Amino acid sequence: MLCLHGSLVLGASGAEPALELPWAGGLDFRRVVRDATDKVFPAVVFIRVLKESHERGRKSAQEVSGSGVIISAEGEILTNWHVVDKAIEIRCLLYDGSHAVADVVGTDKDIDLALIRLRFPPGTARGEWKVAQFGDSDALREGDFVMAMGAPWGLSRSVSMGIIASTRRYLPDASEYSLWLQTDASISPGNSGGALVDTEGRIVGINTLGVLVGGDMGFAIPSSTIQIFLPSLREHGRVDWSYSGMQLQPLRDFNRNIYFPAETGVIVAGTDPDSPARRAGFQSHDRVVRVNGRDVTARNEEDLPAVRRLFGKLPRDEESTIVFERDGQIHQTTLTPRQKGRVEGEALDCPRWDMTVKAINQFDNPDLFFHRPEGVFVYGLKSPGNARQAGLQAKDILIRVDNVPIRTIEELWTEHARLVADVANRSRVVLVVLRNGLTRQILLDFAREFDKE
Amino acid sequence: MSALIRRCFVPVLPILLGLLSARAGEAPPPLTPAALAAAGAAVESSLVRVEYVLRYDNGELPESGGWRERCPGCGRYHGTRGDRFIREERPLETSGFLVAPQQVLTRDTMIHPRFVEAIRVRFGEAVVEAQIERHAAEQCAVLLRLDAALPGTEPLSFVATRQAAPLLTLEYVRQNGFWQTAVKPLAGTVFSVEGQPGFREVPGFSLILDREGRAVAASMRDELPLDDSWQGLPLDWTWIPAAEMQGRIDALRTAVDEGIVRVTLNFRSPRSAPGTGSPFGRSQRYGGDEDEDATERNGVGLMLEGGRILVLEQLTPPLTARLERIQVHRADGSVGAAHFLGSLKDFGAFVASLEEPGVALVHDTAPPQMLRNKLLLSAEVRVQGTERTIHLQHRRMAGFDVGRWNDVFPELPGESRHHFLFTLDGALTILPVRQREPLAPQERWRRDADPIPMFIARIAGACADLAAHVDSNNVPLSPEEENRLAWLGVELQELDRELARANNLSALTRDGAFGAIVSYVYPGSPAAGAGIDVGDILLRLHLDDLPQPFEVRIDEDHFRSRPFPWEQMDQIPEQYFDQIPSPWQPAETQFSRALTNFGIGKAYQAEFSIGGEIVRKDFEIVQSPPHFAVAEQFRSDVLGVTVRALTYEVRRYLQLAPEEAGVVVSRIEPGSRASVAGLKPYEIITRINDEDVKSPADFERLVANGEMLRMNVQRMRQSRVLQIRMDVPVQAPAEALEIDDDQ
Q1: Which terminal Cβ of chain A has fewer Cβ within 10 Å, N or C?
Q2: Residue B28 CB: number of other CB atoms within 10 A?
Q3: CB-based contact (8 Å) between A273 and chain B?
């Protein structure tokens, strides 16, 4: 494996005599690729992350790998949120073969972006790092050549080549705030966080998603989106979205054959219960045309992320003025967004019960939130394990443990600790869970130690 | 126990005394084994073997109803499976006594003649063919006429005078593979039967000899009168000649043809609940004749006096509910209609009135005990699909059995599921009918019990006084009512062994074999009225007409207990929409079904464990409000969507208050306007063109007017607005093709 790494690196960067152009006045494509590669490749890092995971029913460390690209002389690296999320330790392998540890500066789950920073080598004030420059993703056109640089499948540092397949790809399940660059350059697991590079050798995107089956479809966060949020990540460590609970849909939906008779504005699909938008009195089918004096329009679904970003960046706890149309009349009202806050609940390991739990989060678990806005649900089940044997299922919401009501992770932690400490005297406990909207009693017998070797 | 012993002993005493006195008078030599063997040897040349060569008839297996003695294991009489002899290529064998040079007394096997290829009588190596000449009227015997005398044989010569004890019995049987005679003193137990003549026990098929080996009598049943009237020549018994028997059978054929007819029952198509296209939906019962979703069934009907017909089909309440038409196929080929009158509550049959009265069969009115050991006629009537087959023959009753409510039932050896029995005069006396099992509704995978033979007087009595014997809950219902369900107003979780233990209910539930935990109580329901709460445990129901309490069991559908895939709804291709089970549990559960079958309007007590206390609460079985499967609905063909009213369980799942408007999407036609617009099953349509949709009727009215429909749709917490053009075909309008890309 190491040998393979070495040869790949050598092959790509070795100083061989330049091949002459086969015809005059044309473009030497190999030259273009090589120039671009030479500019960005030294800034690409291979990242291995040790992260904490509660997925398999217990708190465990798990190692994943990804890519990143150095964007400043201070050692800032752009990568994906999903690469460094819940990281305990981030190790980076640099172009020159040296390695360094990095710390998280800021992350945002919604746009799947993370900024990390390399620790300076011992005894130095700053590192000698190659830095890649940003390009303009908005200038890209379908058909433009691009290169994906990263470490696919954990094979450190490689380049693949392709074209921009779409400059404005809307993926409703992937992010509500950003559009994607779609490319046919090969993007595999491990490429995540790597750079999508144009022929000028500039970063135009961060490779984030690939299609495992069927291939030839990779998606990258456009550099223009990144530029918007980079300062916020750098300064505040997060994007700090505002939440108004407004559900939006575009004026035109070709797939569903839905066309609203208007050229401007965005349609209110609905409002979340108990949200600022609901309190402001918005109704389904209202057409919002202006927000704080700025015209908004979402003709197609590709326009939605920008509109959502606008709502997401409204000043929180302050009144914003919204102009909308209802039944042919123009109205004006105020909306007071609040902080969006956490987008994922806290997790807790329940050893001996052989399960992990998570707090219900409105954004992460909307279906569970619907049944119970506050509470704790079963996140992972160890197999084999006591919880699984008792018949607990993932997404069961814990209502009561041993007749004690559970609303928060802390309350569950207390009960779990109390019961497990007393396991010698009592090893059975009745849990009341909410499954599919109905309560169930479940007897959890945790006498057996599944960890015993 | 002591009473039983006295009963057996007291009648025996006089016999013992008699024996003692005889011994005191003459002091005959003792019956040594040699003396018994010598007595047997004296009649050896009169003992023959009778062989029935059997065959299949139209795919049916022969079955022998003949019997000899009660089975020592179960105390009943068994028939013999005749097909075994065909498979093993050997005849069914029995013994015979040569009573005249060409006449053999032998056991009545009661095998239908269509299965008998030949009857052969064998003595040693000599074999001759034989025919049945006569049938004994009161013994289980026939007399065979041999085609020729068997060389080496000698007919029995019966002593003319009545002989006193000691007498011997001789049996000629094949045991352990070899033919043998068994000779023993006649000293059977004496029985005194209440209200009937007493009898003494004797081997079921035996020759009775005096101690010198001279024939005194023969017995072809396992009992003898207490006096000596049984002694004498078997040829002096009451015999019915074979020709006369055939005449009686022929006479019966006409009566049966008219009186036991094929009946076709037609049922309305059952409604299919949404989301049951998958194998994970509603469980199917056994297919075929017991299918509860059947639309046609054929069965046997018995013409009654007074223009009625008794249809011997056991219909459950859900099936009867859909009963639409009863057609009676008469003997002359005409088809008449009949109208439902009532289901018998104790028997698997119902009574209908005929538009044109038919010819009823005469019923036998003699007390059943008079049938004991009598020669009877039998009609085997089967209806399979549209074919009715009738096979007639003679038959005998073996004895009596006691069943439910202490009723005395006839006992027929061998096959009896399709057999109607008549006296020799053609009066109906026994018919096959199912008994209803009062606790059957709780068994999801139950299979109907076989019909059992029953005296006609019992059934005719119930039919004559219908009002007192019908189940008013097991009746045809209107299409709106046919899926009605009773409810208590709770959602239930099954109690298993661990939960029974955790709730200290192991002893009361046989370690969690039954019981259900209340997981939700519907406001305004009977349970809510009785103060039942979540966590209370329902154990049993007590109903007056149930012999034992009904134990509550919940058969949970674990597939449905998984979270509903709301987040994947947009990825599910439209052709699979019909197979997505509803997110809420179906209202029809084993429990609600049982409650419904017990009968709406009945009073019952429900036994709960509430906070560790066992509490009984009084309820009446009441009909539930409409549930999702039968909710008011409207299907819009132009949109390709079916919507239903928001029923109680849907509102519970979606946490909708009773006043909140909306209808739930229960079906989407693939490729329809609704499907193209992205409408998904189980979404709620709350408003159309800015008007609240409170019912399917509202929906119908609102989609009827307007070229453009604007629908507000909700999926859990997510809302959206659909805009559907009704005035153009289901295609994208032309302007949609101008893809706007100004970036």
Answers
A1: C
A2: 11
A3: yes
Which residues 649-678 of B have a C-beta within 8 angstroms of A?
Answer: 652-653, 655, 673, 676-678
Cα B669 to Cα B574: distance, rounded to the nearest angstrom: 8
User: Which amino acid is located at B235 in the chain?
Assistant: L
What average pLDDT does the segment A295-317 reach?
94
Write the CB contacts of B444 (distance below 8 Å, at least 6 apart in sequence): B283, B555, B590
Q: Within 10 A of A83 (CB to CB), how many other CB atoms are there?
A: 26
The beta strand positions in A137-282, using DSSP E, are 145-150, 158-169, 180-183, 195-198, 203-210, 218-222, 242-243, 246-249, 252-253, 258-259, 266-271
Q: Report the distance separating Cα B694 and Cα B660, nearest Å.
A: 8
Range 337-366 of A in CB contact (< 8 A) with B: 366
Q: Tokens representing A183?
A: 């490319």
What DSSP string describes A294-322?
EE-B-SSGGGHHHHHHHHHTSPTTS-EEE
For A287, name the nearest residue in chain B, comparing CA atoms only: B721
Report how far apart the first and last C-alpha atoms of chain B are (Å, whole number): 103
| Model confidence, pTM | 0.81
Closest residue on chain B to A172 (Cα): B570
Dihedrals φ, ψ of A113, to 5°? Answer: -125, 145
Separation CA A204–CA A311 (nearest Å): 25
Q: What is the pLDDT of residues B599-627, one digit of tens each?
A: 899 999 999 999 889 999 999 999 999 99
Active site residue A192: yes
List CB contacts of B486: < 8 A, sequence separation 6 or more.
B592, B595, B596, B598, B600, B621, B622, B623, B624
Q: Report the DSSP beta bridge partners of residue B424.
A: none
Amino acid at the residue A28: D
The values of phi and psi at residue B467, to 5°, are: -55, -35
Q: Are B132 and B140 in contact (CB under 8 A)?
A: no
Taking CA atoms, B339 is separated from B331, B355, B599, B737, in Å, by: 19, 8, 22, 63
What interface predicted TM-score (ipTM) does this complex get? Answer: 0.84
Q: How far apart are CA B89 and CA B731, in angstroms?
A: 74
Distance CA A206, CA A226 (A): 9
How open is the CA angle B116-B119-B120, to the nearest 5 degrees?
150
Instruction: For residue range A347-397, list pLDDT tens digits in order.
Output: 999 999 999 999 999 999 988 999 999 999 999 999 899 999 999 999 999
Cβ-based neighbour number of residue B706 at 10 Å: 14
Catalytic residue among A5, A54, A67, A82: A82
B chain contacts of residue A249, beta-carbon cutoff 8 Å: 720-721
At B576, phi and psi to the nearest 5? -100, 0
DSSP SS3 for B584:
coil
CB-CB contact of A194 with A207 (8 Å): yes
Instruction: Give me the pLDDT at residue B280, please.
Output: 35
How distant is the alpha carbon of residue B576 from its chain centre?
39
DSSP class of residue B123 equals: E
- Interatomic CA distance for residues B453 and B457, integer angstroms: 12
Amino acid at B28: P
Q: Please answer whether residues B639 and B667 qualify as being in contact, where contact means their C-beta atoms are separated by less than 8 angstroms.
A: no
- pLDDT confidence tier of residue B276, bands split at 50, 70 and 90: low
- Selecting among A67, A188, A192, A320, the annotated active-site residue is A192
Closest-CA distance, A412 to chain B, in angstroms, reads 21
Query: For residue A152, what is the DSSP state?
Result: G
State yes or no: cis peptide before B203, omega within 30 of 0.
no
8 Å CB contact of A247 and B718: yes
- The CA distance from A452 to B352, in Å, is 71
More confident position, B142 or B737: B142
φ/ψ (deg, to 5) at B256 = -70, -40
**Which residue matches tokens 């927000």?**
A291
